[in-house]
Design brief:
mainly beta; 0% helix; single chain
Length: 238
């Protein structure tokens, strides 16, 4: 992988580590990231990588692509009219987001897609499941008066919004808390009641991503490196 590559997606498959690159397609590593091989993929910008069964999925600037040979070869799917920033497999059902067109769902491994939330102005960034709820993090376009956080309690048949929440990039969970990150508003929000109510944590940095390890919550900020909290967001340190 070129040292100047802008890596925008990471995914750990069953035997390989995958990296999506801006305008560079997908690379894979079989030795824990020491060496990387470029797959046979168009030079597109990769936004998200996931798998469902033995099929890999890549959300790109030119729709959704799949691989059935562990990431060596990739084929563009019929879901090609929109940029895809989010693709997740939840209970073997695929959820994806079409840029500025809403949420879609597939129950047959991506062969067919059903529109679940079709609304101009929505750019889904991430999906997360906690209990019976599926959460969708959105880019909030203020021009359309949208919120950045939605949830469904019926597997995507209908969605409710959590109002006055800014654009949400990703989710993480620790103990009884659910966390959400945003790169368009200061701070990381958290919920202690399964996403019904959300409050700000003490961090004052915009963040792209979140991770949890050994009960520590990590936040990848947009300009100040990585922050860590050992008390579920009450305090943070760089």
């Amino acid at each position: 992988m070129p040292p100047e590559a802008s890596v925008t997606a990471l995914y750990k498959g069953s035997t390989r580590l995958f990296a999506g690159v801006t305008n560079g397609g997908i690379y894979f590593s079989d030795d824990s990231g020491l060496n990387w091989v470029q797959s046979k993929f168009a030079h597109l910008s990769i936004h998200k990588i996931t798998s469902n069964g033995n099929t890999l999925f890549a959300g790109t600037s030119a729709g959704l692509w799949t691989s059935t040979d562990n990431g060596v070869n990739w084929t563009q799917t019929a879901f090609s009219s929109y940029g895809v920033n989010a693709i997740s497999s939840l209970n073997s059902t695929l959820y994806t987001g079409a840029a500025y067109d809403g949420i879609y769902k597939s129950t047959n491994n991506g062969v067919n897609w059903m529109p679940m939330y079709n609304r101009t102005g929505c750019v889904p960034y991430s999906f997360y499941q906690k209990g019976s709820k599926i959460f969708a993090g959105m880019f909030r376009d203020d021009h359309f008066f949208l919120t950045g956080l939605y949830f469904s309690t019926n597997e995507g048949a209908s969605w409710d919004s959590v109002m006055n929440i800014n654009s949400i990039n990703n989710f993480a969970e620790n103990s009884n808390y659910l966390f959400a990150s945003s790169n368009t508003a200061l701070g990381i929000i958290r919920s202690g009641n399964n996403g019904t109510n959300w409050t700000n944590t003490s961090i004052t940095k915009t963040a792209w991503d979140l991770a949890v390890l050994n009960n520590y919550v990590f936040a990848a900020t947009t300009s100040d490196g990585v922050y860590m909290s050992t008390n579920n967001g009450d305090t943070w340190r760089i």
